[in-house]
Specification:
Shape: elongated
Strand content: 5-15%
Number of strands: 19
Largest sheet: 10 strands, mixed
Number of helices: 26
Low-confidence stretches: none
Length: about 850
């Protein structure tokens, strides 16, 4: 038996390779799920951890000597060893070596500007000395270059500066000047060398020895542990976040950390990854299982004669199965091992070329177990297909082909699968099936359509042949007749319908998801960039902001100033003042189905009240109604609604929009007021000029949010990555469908030659036979492609409202769920054309091959 199997493998090497490849793809599809789940989860954690930056990516423990009245206790409270012991053991695995500092707060005796005297272990290795040396004795300090040149006049090396009050001054001698020529992560994103006397909140930092710092009152000790994003995993992050929460409960120290913020931001994504990926890969798995059934059935069918001979020689059904197992077991083992390796190759490709950050490779026992489970399933499918052939009688096995039934044909397994598909479609249509499982609904819908088409294929082909013969279109009639009687056509049509529907829908969802993320980004920012302007100790006003922006952009084509009065209670309104003409140029229009009526703010109202715009998603009122909101007079006032939009980009919940100049004319309120600038540019040079202008106007600093930054956060989510991966899954499914078409041709090769020989004997011209053969495969691919593509919009209508578009859904109504017709239709057209071209090329090749074989027989 083993010898016969070895001979069979040598003579049917192509079939062995095809079976091994099918097994490889199925095992790889199953085994890659745990690997991609791990990679996606690790990547989203790493992305959010790195997004915190140097300043946020630390666990900072501080203690202040003023927390107690006893000097001895104060020394113990600010003891560095004590602070280091407070680090929770659950946090320690995800942090690096600590940066230890002590510092005290003073002020210039001459100018009363604030001063920080700081001592950090290893500080001199992380600054660049411009003059002098590092401090080594008590009373010596190292001063930054901007402070040295701009804080006081006449400073030089050896100068003594006086800090603190006149009654108890502290005198320090300058022994060196330093600068930070490059970004150094040692300082956790803080530019200690920065100093600007024009800014009221500017603080000069002097580096000194610990003994010098101890002269200050109070003294603060800090231990900063950098969070190592490479060590963060979903499991270690959850544990570290719990440890950080435990540390924060201590009342004698302050703990600043971002671990819990990262955990809250990624928890939903990590959970969704574990739900989305299995259902996404099931789509490809279904197509490959259909291909496996077709491949195995074909291999069993072409061995019917051999099975009959074995039975004649006394081997029963078990003997036929043993021979098949001996022939294909090596291919199955090679395919399973190759599939496991393929899963790691795909995972590595995704990690290095797709996901942000760097996720290290790791062996996964879960992947091995899943691969083993898929191998068992493949063995079961093979056994069923082979057993159905082996159990047939000798007379049935000696037939040229299995007997066929006429009319509508629907087997019991097909009826059961159709019922399952129908139940899934109904559950989705009634919104009983939601979330990640909805991803398999397109497969169920396409499968249901394919089962119906397969049942009606034979009678439809018979009817069409008669119609074509009546119209004397013999080549087309012959093509339809051949298509209706070929083995495996129903399976090929099924795979083509499912894969065409999947690819068309995947392109639609991919583009629609990208549009939604762009619209949400615009809704969050309101412009290309949003600049938050913070105030210092002074009293900068809204008019100061307008003047600063106008000095840089007189026509307000790039920058639009805005002032916001925040709501006093969660149920009350906030108010945002803008310059309407500026927002018409600067405001974002991405994703808006209805433009914001900015010009309405410039028109007067009949009742004399100030005009206001509202967003209908959050403010339930109508145009002409009156709404109440805070004013610059420090009291609430009434505003008349002159325009409305579903949402207004850059405007949050329960916020009305008014004309900025009208708003500022009401008073000079200072409390609960914030300032921002909408910018139509992300150019760092222009934003730096804006920062200089607002600083000159008395504001402290700016914080910039750009479209790229916000969009990157939405792109680095489980749902966005799944939409990208669905394109790859669909393309692989199309390749599997094309393999199914090839199997139809290979399986019918002998029958086709016999048929063509008979038709040539009957006087059918070669040109007609050639057109019929080409038309057969064109109709096969065209039928499956068109029906599948037509199924995609219906699948989109069913699944769109309940599928997972977001990890965290937006508040604004920016999500559009319908079929993306321009790109979806283009993808469907391109796919159908590709299938038709492939079908025509393959049919033409088969026709030439058959003609060559006929000429060789006659010659």
């Amino acid at each position: 038996m083993n010898r016969l199997a070895a001979i069979a493998r040598r003579h049917r090497f192509g079939q062995t390779v095809l079976f091994a490849l099918t097994v490889c793809l199925l095992v790889g599809t199953a085994a890659v799920d745990p690997l991609l789940t791990r990679s996606f989860s690790h990547a989203v954690v790493s992305f959010h951890a790195r997004a915190e930056g140097d300043l946020g990516g630390q666990v900072l423990i501080t203690a202040n000597s003023l927390s107690t009245q006893s000097p001895q206790t104060a020394a113990e409270l600010t003891s560095i060893p004590r602070l280091e012991k407070l680090l929770d053991p659950r946090v320690r695995p995800v942090v690096g070596s600590p940066v230890v500092s002590t510092y005290g707060n003073e002020f210039w005796h001459e100018t009363l500007l604030p001063i920080t005297v700081q001592s950090t272990v290893g500080q001199c290795r992380h600054v660049a000395l411009v003059q002098g040396r590092c401090p080594t004795a008590e009373g010596e300090v190292l001063m930054s270059q901007p402070t040295f040149h701009r804080a006081l006049t006449g400073l030089h090396l050896g100068s003594v500066v006086t800090l603190g009050p006149t009654q108890a001054p502290t005198r320090l001698r300058i022994v060196g000047v330093y600068t930070l020529p490059r970004a150094d992560r040692f300082w956790r994103g803080v530019d200690i060398a920065r100093f600007s006397p024009d800014s009221k909140d500017s603080v000069a930092t002097l580096l000194a020895t610990p003994r010098t710092v101890e002269q200050s009152v109070p003294v603060t000790a800090s231990v900063s542990y950098p969070v190592l994003a490479s060590r963060l995993t979903p499991a270690s992050l959850a544990s570290a976040a719990a440890g950080a929460r435990a540390m924060e409960k201590r009342g004698d120290v302050n703990v600043f950390e971002s671990l819990n913020q990262v955990y809250d931001a990624t928890r939903q994504d990590v959970q969704q990854v574990r739900r989305i990926l299995p259902f996404l890969l099931v789509q490809l798995g279904v197509v490959l299982l259909i291909l496996l059934v077709q491949v195995t059935s074909f291999f069993a069918t072409v061995r019917r004669g051999e099975a009959a001979v074995l039975k004649m020689r006394g081997n029963g059904t078990a003997g036929v199965v043993r021979l098949g197992a001996a022939e294909f077991l090596p291919a199955a083992v090679a395919g399973a091992v190759g599939g496991l390796g393929l899963a790691y190759v795909v995972d590595g490709f995704v990690r290095h070329w797709w996901l942000p950050g760097s996720v290290a490779a790791r062996w996964s026992w879960s992947s091995l177990l899943v691969a083993a489970g898929m191998a068992v399933l493949i063995g079961a499918v093979w056994l069923v297909c082979w057993w159905l052939t082996a159990r047939a009688s000798i007379s049935a096995l000696l037939r040229a082909r299995p007997p066929r039934r006429r009319g509508v044909r629907l087997s019991t397994p097909a009826a059961v699968l159709g019922a399952v598909c129908l139940v899934g479609v109904v559950l989705t249509a009634t919104h009983s099936l939601t979330g990640a499982p909805v991803q398999i609904t397109p497969v169920l819908l396409a499968g249901l359509v394919a089962i119906v088409v397969g049942a009606l294929l034979a009678p439809a082909a018979t009817w069409l042949v008669r119609r074509l013969l009546t119209r004397r279109r013999s080549a087309a009639a012959l093509a339809v007749a051949q298509l209706g009687r070929r083995a495996g056509v129903v399976t090929a049509v099924t795979t083509l319908i499912i894969t065409s529907a999947l690819l068309t829908l995947s392109v639609s969802v991919f583009v629609r998801g990208a549009d939604n993320r762009a619209a949400r980004t615009a809704a969050d920012l309101g412009a290309t960039s949003l600049v938050h302007v913070s105030t210092g100790p002074g009293s900068a006003s809204g008019q100061d902001l307008i003047d600063a922006v106008t000095s840089l952009d007189p026509q307000h084509r790039e920058f639009a100033p805005a002032v916001m009065i925040n709501a006093s209670t969660p149920m009350s309104n906030a108010i945002l003042g803008v310059i309407p003409s500026a927002m018409q140029h600067v405001g974002s229009r991405t994703g808006l189905q209805q433009q914001v009526p900015w010009s309405a703010l410039g028109t007067g109202t009949a009742d004399g009240r100030p005009a206001a715009l509202i967003a209908t998603w959050t403010t339930e009122t109508t145009v002409g109604a009156t709404v109440s909101a805070p004013t610059m007079a420090d009291v609430d006032g009434d505003f008349t609604v002159v325009g409305a939009a579903p949402y207004i980009p850059g405007v949050g919940a329960r916020t009305i929009v008014v004309d900025l100049k009208t708003m500022l004319a009401a008073g000079d309120r200072q409390d609960n007021v914030s300032f921002q600038v909408f910018a139509a540019t992300q150019d760092p040079h222009r934003l730096a000029q804006l920062e200089a202008a607002v600083r000159k106007a008395g504001f402290a600093s700016i914080q910039v949010q750009t479209t790229e930054q916000v969009r990157a956060g939405y792109d680095a989510t489980a749902t966005a990555w799944a939409m990208n991966l669905s394109i790859v899954v669909s393309v692989l499914a199309v390749l599997a469908a094309l393999t199914s078409v090839v199997l139809v041709a290979v399986a019918s090769r002998t029958d086709r030659r016999r048929d063509l020989r008979a038709l040539r004997t009957g006087g059918v011209p070669r040109a007609v036979l050639r057109r019929a053969t080409v038309g057969e495969f064109v109709m096969l691919t065209l039928t499956g492609g068109l029906i599948g593509a037509a199924t995609a919009p219906l699948a989109s209508r069913l699944t769109g409202p309940t599928m997972l578009w977001w990890s965290t859904p937006p508040e604004q109504p920016v999500t559009r769920t319908g079929f993306q017709w321009p790109f979806g239709a283009a993808a469907a057209a391109a796919l159908v054309v590709l299938l038709v071209v492939v079908g025509a090329a393959f049919g033409s090749r088969l026709a030439r091959s058959a003609e060559a074989a006929e000429r060789g027989r006659l010659g």
